[in-house]
Backbone:
């Protein structure tokens, strides 16, 4: 499938947006677990709902649609989960590379050339991993997703739990 550069760039930014929202959600859950501040649950749910809205935006950009979910995860729900986790892996890969760069810079500054060279190799491996993650995301979005249209909903189980809670409140 041929896609425009604009569409690919927009989709890449939306993937990062999903990842950062999921990452913020993860940190908020860690904070809630450490502090036992139940007030934070509202913010966690808000972040999850924002992430879901961004997922809906992504799927609308790519014209992926579905119907309400059933008892088991649909193919599109599985795609959503894969994309969510791959996007988070991409962000963690970037953060890992930043940490390796800092250690490498320190080693260079202190004249530890052998250590700096080992860190350069690790950084190269991280960049290779990053590129493979980006390629996987691109394939999922621009090739695999087109084969999954007209199946059930676009949410993973944890997101569906929120939807059921919202239905029960109504």
Residues:
């Amino acid at each position: 499938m041929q896609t425009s550069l604009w569409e690919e760039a927009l989709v890449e930014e939306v993937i990062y947006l999903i990842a950062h929202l999921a990452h913020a959600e993860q940190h908020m859950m860690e904070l809630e677990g450490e502090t036992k501040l139940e007030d934070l649950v509202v913010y966690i749910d808000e972040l999850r709902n924002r992430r879901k809205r961004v997922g809906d935006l992504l799927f609308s950009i790519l014209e992926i649609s579905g119907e309400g979910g059933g008892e088991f995860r649909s193919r599109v729900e599985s795609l959503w989960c894969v994309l969510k986790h791959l996007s988070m892996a991409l962000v963690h890969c970037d953060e890992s590379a930043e940490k390796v760069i800092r250690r490498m810079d320190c080693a260079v500054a202190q004249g530890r050339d052998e250590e700096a060279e080992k860190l350069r190799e690790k950084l190269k491996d991280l960049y290779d991993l990053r590129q493979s993650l980006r390629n996987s995301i691109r394939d999922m979005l621009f090739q695999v997703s087109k084969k999954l249209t007209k199946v059930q909903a676009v949410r993973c189980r944890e997101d569906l739990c929120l939807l059921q809670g919202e239905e029960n409140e109504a």
Observations:
- The helical segments are 5-35, 40-61, 75-109, 113-144, 157-169.
- Strands lie at 66-67, 151-152.
- The first strand starts at residue 66 and ends at 67.
